[in-house]
Amino acid sequence: MLRTTTGRTVAALAASAAALLALSACSSGSGTSSSDDVTISYGIWDQNQQPAMEEIAEAFTAEHPNVTVEIQLTPYKEYFTKLQTSVSGGAAPDVFWMNGPNFQLYASNGVIAPLDDQGVEASDYPQGLIDLYTYDGSLYGVPKDFDTVALWYNTELFDAAGVEYPSAGWTWDDLKAAAAKLSDPAAGVYGITATQYGQENYYNSIAQAGGEVISADGTESGYGSSEALEGITLWTDLIAAGSSPTAQQMTDTAAEDFFISGKAAMFQNGSWAAIAYAENPDLAEKVNVAPLPAGADGNQSVIHGIGNVANAKSTNLDIAKEFAAFASGEQAAAIQSESGTVIPAFNGSQQAWVDALPQYDLQVYIDALESAVPYPVSKNTAAWTALESEILSQVWAGTVSPEDGLTQLAEEMQAALDAESE
Amino acid sequence: MSDLIAQRTAAPIAELDGGRPGAAAPAPRRRRRGPGQSGWWALVFIGPTAVGLLAFYLWPTVRTFILSFTKSGPFGGSEFVGLDNYVRLLEDPELIGALRNTAVYTVLVLVGIPIAVGIAALLNTTGLRGRGIYRTLYFIPVVTMPAAIALVWRMIYNGDYGVLNEVLGVFGIPGNSWLTDPTTALVSIAVVGIWAGLGTNIVIFLAGLQGIPDTVMEAADLDGAGPVRKFVSITIPLLSPSIFFVSVISVIGALQVFDLIYMMLGQNNPAMPNTRTIVYLFYEAGFLDNERGYAAAIAFLLLVIILVLTVVQFRLQKKWVHYE
């Protein structure tokens, strides 16, 4: 109790401090400059992207000399907690980054403004992202960047085991066969890490089997289907076959660490991994990337990306909306592309990202767009992702069978979804 | 709290004194300098603490209580739902597990008290060389960041590469994946909890031990008592007020355990059903599921449990705590 009240106290203090700061910022703004001058704030969570975001802000000021954009960086771990508090307190940034799981919560509560009047062309962006940021027929977020998933592999381990590298056209069976051959229990080497990760692993495999995590309208759980079961058992079978570390091992030691330290030959990871692997001197020369292996229905990857959204309560709503669209537009995309940190969502601006690291086949991430499926979300995504994490952890550990686990998950997730629409 | 009590008692005394009609003759002088003024001064000194307590403890507690009867939206705004949250809490299948885990953890942490008494007694031995060094060593965990402690112990417990399994392997004992095995996870965390709290408890016990008069020990020597007899019949009873104090704060602390579990286990841990405590349940409801009203109800249940257990301990102290 003591701890919780102190937590609240700190939060309250922080919120009131933020409110005070906002107040003083307002008063000094109006006091010292002419009435046309406007300062808007832009909330982001990734420090690596801050330089690019500042460049985009300057580019906007160049077009609108009376507007200054102030970047507000909050580490991701606290980002959404702080954002929610500051929205309640009326001190949220004018424009801010949004992600898929949180998007509908903000859109359905009227916290962010529709951007339909900003002349955003849906055809300029991957369809999966436009779908992700559309709520009730209106576009509320303009896709800033995207990430798809592909299969990273360690060439040294493949060479040592005499297994051919993964390639386009690989199927689940190829993956399983290769993983089995690559595993060497004596040396503590595994073929792959079959981690309980949604975006990197089972969200993709469920789509590849022809199933879905959630219906397109976000009201029905898809975990009850036999396709979802196949998508899950792909991974649990790999563990059972000894081709992957166990769930317990991957809880103790992060799955990626198995791959980075050469103890796992394959690792499915998002496009964000490219720059990290290229900068790791122990790893850079030994790895490459291939498309995901195909299940019965194809080799779909989920697509996710950050969206720029405008605070509906912003005092400068028009400018905020304009900047949200601008920060996802062609010019901003070019700036991001040059920085090499993320793949810009704006179609046609992705080549620079691919070219930045020519040693890897990064084109696979762009090619994945063609069949990509949107990241599964609903109005209160967090409520059922907590269920996923909890129930699937027992399935992965082998204490509950995949059939029983998914039946339970489908049921409880449906209850959570039904509660949302009440 | 004690400041509040002091403030409350200070006022009536001042009134009584100043308002007494019989004390009329010398009163004028005393009234100016004495009671009235000292009442004001008391307020001045107590004020900041009292305001802090009211604003940052009492008011949030009241707010939490009110919140527990509402269903709150994610961005503020709430509707009154009566006892719904409490009914739902009692029907929550995870509550039993959380209560059990919290109880087990609390009992495990209490094991740390005899350990701390023993170490404090050893450190208090006259003629022990390097006493300062030992005291410092035991106190270091107390001044170490909990996050750092959690991180290091995670590595020690690691099933594949942990030091613990390495050491056990030397003795031919098979290792374990300590933090993911449902039967060992909670115990493993309790060990860290005990270790991290040892330093504070030892300092309190050392102070208690040094308050035991030498004359009592000398008298026991003369009566022919051996070291064990002296420890059991003199040291422990005379140390009982300190033991009581430590057990009260340890129980309160253990019932609120969260940080170690949050940092050492992580979300996808298969051992979570066997380690989820009340505060972790609160965290999941309030911060993962966005259900603040429900989370407030959980927080209140915990407050009641802590209150009851603390009252019980105070009642029981008459049976075993010796005040000189």
TrEMBL record, chain A:
The keyword Signal applies. Pfam families: SBP_bac_1. Residues 1-27 form the signal peptide. PROSITE patterns: PROKAR_LIPOPROTEIN (PS51257). The keyword Secreted does not apply. Keywords: Signal, Transport. Belongs to the bacterial solute-binding protein 1 family. This is Sugar ABC transporter substrate-binding protein.
Automatic annotation (TrEMBL), chain B:
Pfam families: BPD_transp_1 (PF00528). Residues 16-36 are annotated as: Disordered. It comes from the Bacteria. It is found in: Cell membrane. CDD domains: TM_PBP2. It is a multi-pass membrane protein. Residues 98-313 form the ABC transmembrane type-1 domain. Keywords: Cell membrane, Membrane, Transmembrane, Transmembrane helix, Transport. Its main location: membrane. The chain crosses the membrane at residues 39-59, 103-124, 136-156, 185-209, 243-265, 293-312. Belongs to the binding-protein-dependent transport system permease family. This is Sugar ABC transporter permease. It comes from Agromyces humatus.
